[in-house]
């Protein structure tokens, strides 16, 4: 689960457009299976299906907006969209800046992958910038190399520029299955699950999505989506 901490709340300002006629859902569109762009250039993946269903249950008209990961919180606070649904980990640091729904996944593992076995505590390890994985790597004895996108972290290890990559295991699993990369070391559990993020002034809108998540947990449809997209962290 990815995590970004914005060091200042100054951008919160007066950007609130909650409860507008159309609710804009912000996502990265580059982190399968959570979210990605399909061949038609449309947002797809677990969070596309989840977001559409939540909007239906909350009786909201919604549209999708894509945004680079490194500016996804600042542009929420600036009013470019109304919520973030982008594989974002719930963390105490981020709660100082945005408000979260309850998690729509439980904490799921992060993992290391490499071409051969290495000591991840002394290796050179790639991770996407401003994620919970990059923070973890930085806290170990490893040398962290950050990249703007998850694809670049994979390219670095396959090209031999780094020794290993750390990311969500859900993201790495199909890559390991299709390439020469292999999982190494033990899985690491980080964060408090994934949730939707909102401006702190948008409590009413957040509550609508929270209630919709409750109904999906209660009727089993959330677990069915997690199964469909092979994402760990069921309820």
UniProtKB/TrEMBL annotation:
<keyword id="KW-0732">Signal</keyword>
<protein>
    <submittedName>
        <fullName>Lysine-arginine-ornithine-binding periplasmic protein</fullName>
    </submittedName>
</protein>
<dbReference type="InterPro" id="IPR001638">
    <property type="entry name" value="Solute-binding_3/MltF_N"/>
</dbReference>
<feature type="domain" description="Solute-binding protein family 3/N-terminal">
    <location>
        <begin position="22"/>
        <end position="233"/>
    </location>
</feature>
<feature type="signal peptide">
    <location>
        <begin position="1"/>
        <end position="20"/>
    </location>
</feature>
<dbReference type="Pfam" id="PF00497">
    <property type="entry name" value="SBP_bac_3"/>
</dbReference>
């Amino acid at each position: 689960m990815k995590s970004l901490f914005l060091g200042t709340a100054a951008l919160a300002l007066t950007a609130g457009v909650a409860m507008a006629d159309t609710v804009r859902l912000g996502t990265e569109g580059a982190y399968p299976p959570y979210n990605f762009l399909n061949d038609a250039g449309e947002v797809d993946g677990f969070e596309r299906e989840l977001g559409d269903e939540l909007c239906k249950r909350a009786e909201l008209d919604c549209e999708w907006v894509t945004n680079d990961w490194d500016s996804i919180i600042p542009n929420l606070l600036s009013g470019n969209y109304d919520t973030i649904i982008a594989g974002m980990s719930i963390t105490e640091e981020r709660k100082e800046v945005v408000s979260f729904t309850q998690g729509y996944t439980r904490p799921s593992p992060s993992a290391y992958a490499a071409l051969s076995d290495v000591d991840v505590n002394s290796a050179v390890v790639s991770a996407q910038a401003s994620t919970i994985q990059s923070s973890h790597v930085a806290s170990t004895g490893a040398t962290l190399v950050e990249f703007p996108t998850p694809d670049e972290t994979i390219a670095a290890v396959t090209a031999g520029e780094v020794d290993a990559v750390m990311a969500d295991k859900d993201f790495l699993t199909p890559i390991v299955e299709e390439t020469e990369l292999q999982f190494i070391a033990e899985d690491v559990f980080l964060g408090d699950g994934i949730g939707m993020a909102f401006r702190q002034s948008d409590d009413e809108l957040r509550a609508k999505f929270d209630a919709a998540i409750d109904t999906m947990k209660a009727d089993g449809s959330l677990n069915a989506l997690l199964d469909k997209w092979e994402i760990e962290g069921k309820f």
